[in-house]
Specification:
Elements (H helix, E strand, L loop, with lengths): L1 H13 L2 H10 L14 H13 L3 E6 L7 H21 L3 E5 L10 H17 L4 E3 L7 H14 L3 E6 L5 H7 L5 E4 L14 H17 L4 E4 L3 H14 L6 E6 L4 H9 L4 E7 L4 H10 L4 H10 L1
Parallel strand pairs: 1-2, 1-8, 2-3, 3-4, 4-5, 5-6, 6-7, 7-8
Helix pairs in contact: 1-11, 4-5, 8-9
The structure holds dihydroflavine-adenine dinucleotide.
Length: about 300
């Protein structure tokens, strides 16, 4: 009950544009620096170097919410291109994650498509890969449509599927043969489109991962849930699925011991490292997921 209320509260806060805009001027506050790797490209590259030296590979995400004009969308695109250049120059093992709304999806679909093409083309030039995050339900179909257009021309792009959605299984079938990140889903969605019960979400999520793996497709398993990780280790082992066909993904700052433990066992572990001054919405969604994450924030408030 309290957990549900806390989730609703932080998801509500995550959508507050006024707080989001103010937070850009505050610097990384309230413990956000525990889960966001600085505000600039050099700071995120330093973090990636450290993680690489610990046997962890990365994907970086330049945080951005509420992009509402063309200039902001182009600025975000430029930033993604610069990040790919910096990754190449630093020679680190890291790809790029992004959200299509940052590139103008809410403004003009063609603008967004041109922007993402420019980024994927740059990644191609550097032999790198771009992962399109999945956002709230309102953007799900458009995200898949744009991904399907891109995959006609590029093989260095993938997207993500949320296990809490009723439509997830059908969507995943269409993505057979592509690299998919599977997640439970982080947004507040209605019962019409999304399972609400944690056990159902857990079972559906696990089945989707197995479906994609058994289809021979590359699978990014993005969860902090050790029960799922353990079950999938046994499953892939039992089915003879090679460790090169999947990776585990964690968010920066979460379950760091587990990350290292799994990497030591010879699994590929990729850390999703967010950076930038637009940290507010991302941080609120993390607080919503797990009430214990609030202790991060409280410790951060005491330290600052
Ligand atoms: P969940 O929060 O369901 O917890 C399940 C159990 O795992 C807990 O009961 C506890 O036992 C254990 N556990 C979890 N976190 C723990 C912790 N910090 N410490 C100790 N135990 C813990 N969402 C989205 O909608 N679109 C996207 O594109 C992405 N991308 C993405 C990338 C990556 C790399 C990750 C890890 C996650 C995302 N997400 C996402 C977020 C995702 O949808 C989901 O909201 C969170 O991962 C939370 O679900 P989990 O399965 O991790 O554990």
């Amino acid at each position: 009950m309290v957990e549900k209320a806390s989730r609703q509260f932080f998801l509500f806060l995550s959508k507050n544009k006024l707080l989001n805009n103010s937070a850009k001027k505050w610097g990384l506050k309230f413990g956000a620096s525990n889960v966001v790797a600085g505000e600039t490209i050099p700071s995120v590259i330093e973090t990636v170097k450290k993680l690489n030296s610990q046997g962890l590979i990365c994907t970086v995400d330049h945080l951005g919410e509420f992009v509402i004009n063309k200039d902001e969308a182009i600025e975000s695109t430029d930033y993604c291109v610069k990040t790919l250049e910096a990754i190449d120059q630093a020679g680190v093992n890291c790809n790029l994650s992004l959200k299509l709304t940052q590139l103008g999806l809410d403004i003009d679909r063609e603008l967004c498509l041109n922007n993402i093409r420019r980024i994927v083309q740059t990644a191609k030039k550097y032999n790198n890969f771009v992962r399109i995050d999945m956002e709230d339900y309102a953007h799900c179909q458009e995200t898949l449509d744009i991904f399907n257009e891109l995959r006609k021309d590029y093989d260095n792009v993938g997207t993500a599927i949320q296990g809490y959605l009723h439509r997830a299984q059908e969507d995943l079938k269409d993505l057979k043969g592509t690299s998919v990140r599977l997640i439970k889903g982080a947004y507040k969605e209605s019962p019409e489109v999304c399972y609400q019960d944690q056990t159902t979400i857990y079972d559906n999520y696990l089945n989707l991962i197995k479906q994609h793996l058994l289809g021979g497709s590359y699978t990014a398993i993005a969860t902090h849930d050790h029960r799922i990780i353990n079950e999938l280790k046994a499953f892939t082992d039992g089915k003879g699925i090679p460790k090169t066909q999947f990776e585990f993904q964690f968010l920066y700052g979460f379950r760091t011991e587990l990350q290292r433990e799994i990497a030591k066992e010879g699994y590929t572990v990729r850390i999703y490292v967010p950076y930038g001054n637009d940290w507010y919405g991302y941080f609120m969604r993390r607080l919503a997921e797990r009430p214990q994450n609030v202790s991060f924030a409280l410790r951060g408030m005491i330290k600052k």
